[in-house]
């Protein structure tokens, strides 16, 4: 194993696999451009061989870019960055790889997020923003018999679905009716708030 590969192996074990390292030594083989590693003879390496993103298909810096290291790649979520300084002046300048659709990451609570591009100090990046629109009835449906089932509804901002609780003074299923007022979920003789009280004709009575 060469000295360069030994160093890369150690850094990968320590969690630095996402960084580009330029170590002096034998140059990379032909065709290495686009592997996100800055080989000898490359001015940049952004992990692809596309033109127009600041580092062209020959791993040469394009107009507006700066020379030096490669990138950590694009399209990852959680506020990551990638690219070379000068590649953007606004998020709209960034490639589509920095944008992603809504994903329903918590179906039982109908919570999701989408990925939006960012442009900070001329460098493209991405960040997660709340967006629950990918959470639909196909994602999660809660059986609230004898009342209506509660489901994710595909809107951007959702609350976790819940069945009506007849004794907590709350509108759990968000239908505008609280406890015994919801005569379908809490019919007559259903226990409600208070010691031994029951629902009767829409009221909680002793």
Give an overview of the whole structure.
- With 206 residues, the chain is mainly beta.
- It is built from 1 helix and 7 strands.
- A 3-stranded antiparallel sheet has the order 1-2-3, with no helix packed on it.
- The N and C termini lie far apart (82 Å).
Shape: rod-shaped
Please give the number of β-strands.
Answer: 7
What is the helix tally?
1
The topology string of helices and strands comes to HEEEEEEE
- Gyration radius, to the nearest Å? 28 Å
Beta-strand content estimate: 15-25%
Q: Helix/strand-derived class?
A: mainly beta
The N- to C-terminal Cα distance equals 82 Å
Task: Give the key terms.
206 residues; mainly beta; two-stranded antiparallel sheet; 17% strand
Brief account:
This protein has 206 residues and is mainly beta. It has one helix spanning 3-13; strands spanning 100-106, 111-120, 123-130, 141-142, 150-151, 198-200, 203-205.
Topology:
Layout: H1 3-13, E1 100-106, E2 111-120, E3 123-130, E4 141-142, E5 150-151, E6 198-200, E7 203-205
Antiparallel strand pairs: 1-2, 2-3, 4-5, 6-7
């Amino acid at each position: 194993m060469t000295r360069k590969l030994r160093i890369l192996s150690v850094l990968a074990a320590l969690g630095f696999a996402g960084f580009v390292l330029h170590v002096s030594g034998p140059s990379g083989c032909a065709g290495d451009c686009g592997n996100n590693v800055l080989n000898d003879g490359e001015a940049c390496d952004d992990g692809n061989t596309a033109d127009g993103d600041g580092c062209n298909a020959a791993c040469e810096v394009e107009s507006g870019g700066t020379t030096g290291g490669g990138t950590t790649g694009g399209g990852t979520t959680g506020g990551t960055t990638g690219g070379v300084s000068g590649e953007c002046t606004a998020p709209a300048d960034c490639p589509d790889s920095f944008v992603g659709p809504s994903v329903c990451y918590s179906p039982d609570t109908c919570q999701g997020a989408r990925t939006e591009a960012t442009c900070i100090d001329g460098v493209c990046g991405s960040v997660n923003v709340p967006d629950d629109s990918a959470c639909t009835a196909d994602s999660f449906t809660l059986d609230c018999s004898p009342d209506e089932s509660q489901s994710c509804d595909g809107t951007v901002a959702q609350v976790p679905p819940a069945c009506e609780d007849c004794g907590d003074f709350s509108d759990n299923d968000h239908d505008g009716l609280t406890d015994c007022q919801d005569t379908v979920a809490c019919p007559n003789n259903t226990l409600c708030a208070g010691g031994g009280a029951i629902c009767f004709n829409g009221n909680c009575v002793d």
